[in-house]
Amino acid sequence: MFAEHFQKLLKEHPPQTSSRAALSDWACATHNIVNERLGKPEFDCSTLSDVYKCGCADEGQDQEATTVDP
Question: Which GO molecular function entries does the Swiss-Prot or TrEMBL record give (predicted)?
Fold first, then answer.
């Protein structure tokens, strides 16, 4: 049943992949559509960047680089 609903949701709201932010916004909005259907509370999508760090390479620039010798 979930798969059928999700396939319909994907047809009505195709993934937005033009940027990392667009995909994150799409995923959160899609999550909230499912939550609404299940009677669960909505997630505040404006807090995505605070709640989930992107793991981007530039985030670790303050950390000391380490190497592993073979």
Answer: flavin adenine dinucleotide binding; flavin-dependent sulfhydryl oxidase activity
- Structural domain span for residue 30: 10-42
Q: Which are the contacts of 6, defined by CB distance < 8 A and separation ≥ 6?
A: 34
Residue 15 belongs to some domain of the structure:
yes
**Runs of H (alpha helix) within 39-68:** 48-51
Note whether residue 37 is domain-resident.
Answer: yes
Residue 34 in domain:
yes
Which tokens sit at 14? 């195709």
What does DSSP assign to residue 57? G
Q: At 32, give phi and psi (nearest 5°).
A: -70, -30
